[in-house]
């Protein structure tokens, strides 16, 4: 059973880079699967940010593509999200996800963009 | 503005059958599988239906999914109070470089 746990700063200043990490347990990232991020602004719906395959191929939401980087660290069995030039509109609960059907979700972490 | 269209709300009484619709286009629902997620208050979403009509282990058979053309539906029979949650449909979209797209979510109230 794949288990995911997000970590990272809960507060980021406008124009800075949001950085989150997702620790994976119960499965080796290098063995397969898709790994990615979804966010949910307070009181709103879900927005897919992007995914990376175990092969290294990445897919990003076209509306965020210019600001997003998702990478994998197989040595630590974790993957990361970087979102640059953040604004208040990037305030959301960020979930790390995995599986071809987005089968597995982390518990989510709230990131607030504010000075 | 979500790519997939869902009604913002739905309701039913215990024991009833309710359906939630999800409308898309040829580049998403029309050519790819549909997935449904249930989000209970204050928790992460949970996969409810995958590949249009398949249930993961542990999901009661009260939940069923269907797809026709560019639309899909989630049906919940024998409605229970614990089904009160937000429900989201999702699909892969082949436009541009490809991306997952979601519906705006439907808040189900059990009266």
From TrEMBL, chain B:
SMART domains: IG, IGv. Residues 1-91 form the Ig-like domain. PROSITE patterns: IG_LIKE. SUPFAM superfamilies: Immunoglobulin. Keywords: Adaptive immunity, Cell membrane, Disulfide bond, Immunity, Immunoglobulin, Immunoglobulin domain, Membrane, Secreted. Residues 1-19 have a biased composition (Polar residues). It is found in: Cell membrane; Secreted. GO terms for cellular component: extracellular region; immunoglobulin complex; plasma membrane. Its main location: membrane. One of its GO terms (biological process) is adaptive immune response. Residues 1-21 are annotated as: Disordered. Immunoglobulins are composed of two identical heavy chains and two identical light chains; disulfide-linked. PANTHER family: IMMUNOGLOBULIN LIGHT CHAIN. This is IGL c2902_light_IGLV1-47_IGLJ3.
């Amino acid at each position: 059973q794949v288990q995911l746990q997000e970590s990272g700063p809960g507060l980021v200043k406008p124009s800075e880079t949001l950085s989150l990490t997702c620790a994976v347990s119960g499965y080796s990232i290098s063995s397969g699967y898709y790994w990615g991020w979804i966010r949910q602004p307070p009181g709103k719906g879900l927005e897919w940010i992007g995914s990376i395959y175990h092969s290294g191929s990445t897919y990003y939401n076209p509306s965020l593509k210019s600001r997003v980087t998702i990478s994998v660290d197989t040595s630590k069995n974790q993957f990361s999200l970087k979102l640059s030039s953040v604004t208040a509109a990037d305030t959301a609960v960020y979930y790390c996800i995995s599986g071809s059907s987005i089968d597995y979700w982390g518990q989510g972490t709230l990131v607030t963009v504010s000075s | 503005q979500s790519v997939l269209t869902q009604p913002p709300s739905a309701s039913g009484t215990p024991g009833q059958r309710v359906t939630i619709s999800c409308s898309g286009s040829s580049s998403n629902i029309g050519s790819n599988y549909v997935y449904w997620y249930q989000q209970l208050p204050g928790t992460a979403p949970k996969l409810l239906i995958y590949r249009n009509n398949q249930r993961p282990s542990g999901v009661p058979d009260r939940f069923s999914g269907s797809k026709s053309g560019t639309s899909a539906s989630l049906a919940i029979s024998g409605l229970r109070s614990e089904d009160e949650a937000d429900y989201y449909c999702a699909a892969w979209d082949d436009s541009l470089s490809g991306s997952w797209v979601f519906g705006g979510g439907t808040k189900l109230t059990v009266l």
